[in-house]
Specification:
The protein is mainly alpha-helical. The chain contains 16 helices and no strands.
């Protein structure tokens, strides 16, 4: 287990870009599952979109919990590869996969036992919407087993410096999903359940491919005993990022319930707009993954000069992407929304969301990349505290602003707090570089 891409010696900008581009592509293809689903589900109407959107919030909550294990495992593996401790890297990988399986069993049990409470949380008072939401929740809940596994494989492959393989595998899954979605939704007449089933099958195929290709780097095997220390290391390293994402999703659920008071069209508009915004979020998440792996290996090798320079390069790249995204969201909000739905009320709400939240895209990109840098040096708590504090403030701010601006008050709360998070995280990591990573 010694074959990996050493990121402690190659040219910094080239290394980051070559690693980031496939991760961005892989992130986009992960997003494409949701986009393809939404394109076809949109043809079923706003009620179907609202059902999928409400259920998806709780699926995303599971992904937030999974981030704890995925982040902790990925960073620990990168550190051990950087220090050439291959045996411990292998042990962290197998421990991470065990924790992943346990998390799936616990979380699916939660979804199954409380499914009725979950779908009624949004107070739709529409039995048809609630029934569709429950169907989608259950099938995608089962699919979280494959999704959790795929997130873990991607993180570990990135730690090895291989971002091309995840990109290729995700391409295959998305192409299959494009064909299976309309088949299951319309030909087999399974509706939103069919959309979830198609995605689950494609994710399962991806997991199989990841398992096959992972053998050139590592072997997943059951160990005779698992180190409690390694479990703690993974958990406590990944906990800040994971709890931040869990909190982010929880707050999104609370805000979504606030949005639901404007009707199913509002929830549908938010779901579609979030799917569009996720193009930016997950693309920059690719750069975050590259930064975390790059910084992780160089931190393990004590190449602090490369960490400082790598962060500078990543800031420029993320700012550029954020500017492009802002221009697209503000100028093309209408055409983007019309790709998914033609309901006038839904269109109007969604366009306002994209324009308001679009103004904060640069700061969102900076925050996400800084989070990757902090994870790479083993200090995720700083970025997480920034995220937790200011994301939590969205609820009281939205409550006040909706009294003045209506539903747009929710979007203003999201955009404003994003600006603060991006600014503060950039300032603090600059201080970190100045005092700890001087050239």
């Amino acid at each position: 287990m010694v074959k990996f891409n050493d990121m402690t010696t190659e040219p910094i900008k080239k290394t980051l870009i070559l690693l980031a581009l496939p991760i961005m592509g892989a992130s986009f293809f992960q997003l494409a599952y949701g986009i393809v689903d939404m394109l076809w589900i949109g043809k079923l109407g706003s009620r179907a979109v609202a059902a999928v959107g409400s259920a998806a919030f709780f699926i995303n909550l599971g992904f937030g919990l999974n981030t704890i294990i995925v982040t902790g495992t990925g960073v620990k593996v990168a550190h051990r590869l950087g220090s050439k401790n291959y045996k411990e890297a292998d042990e962290f990988i197998n421990t991470g996969f065990l924790m992943n399986v346990i998390l799936f069993l616990v979380y699916f049990a939660f979804l199954f036992l409380f499914r009725n409470m979950i779908v009624k949380y949004f107070n739709f008072n529409d039995a048809g919407v609630e029934n569709m939401a429950e169907q989608y929740l259950m099938i995608t809940g089962i699919g979280t087993f494959f999704k959790f596994s795929n997130f873990m494989f991607v993180s570990i492959f990135n730690s090895f410096g291989d971002s091309k393989t995840p990109f290729k595998i995700n391409c295959i899954g998305v192409i299959l999903n494009i064909f299976l979605d309309p088949l299951f939704i319309f030909v087999f007449n399974l509706g939103v359940f069919g959309a979830g089933l198609a995605t689950m099958l494609c994710e399962g195929i991806n997991s199989t491919l990841f398992y096959i290709y992972s053998k050139k780097y590592f072997t997943i095997k059951r160990q005779k005993e698992y180190s409690r220390e390694k479990i703690k290391d993974i958990f406590f390293l990944g906990f800040p990022n994971g709890i931040q994402r869990v909190l982010f999703t929880t707050i999104s659920i609370v805000l979504a319930r606030m949005v639901a008071s404007w009707g199913a069209s509002a929830i549908a508009a938010q779901k579609i707009a979030l799917q569009i915004e996720a193009v930016s979020y997950l693309t920059i998440g690719g750069l975050q993954g590259a930064v975390a792996s790059f910084v992780g290996q160089n931190f393990g090798a004590k190449r602090y000069d490369r960490i400082a320079e790598g962060h500078k390069v990543s800031m420029r790249l993320s700012a550029g992407l954020g500017i492009i995204t802002t221009l697209i969201f503000v100028i093309f909000a209408g055409p983007l929304m019309k790709i998914f739905i033609d309901d006038e009320k839904t269109l109007e709400i969604g366009m306002d969301y994209l324009r308001i939240v679009g103004l904060s895209q640069v700061f969102m990109c900076l925050e996400i990349v800084n989070s990757g840098a902090y994870s790479g040096i083993g200090k995720p708590k700083i970025a997480s505290m920034i995220g937790i504090i200011f994301t939590s403030l969205r609820i009281p701010i939205a409550f006040v602003l909706t009294k003045i601006f209506g539903i747009n008050g929710v979007w203003l709360a999201i955009s404003g707090t994003t600006v603060v998070k991006g600014t503060l995280s950039t300032y603090l990591f600059s201080k970190e570089k100045k005092y700890n990573f001087r050239r």
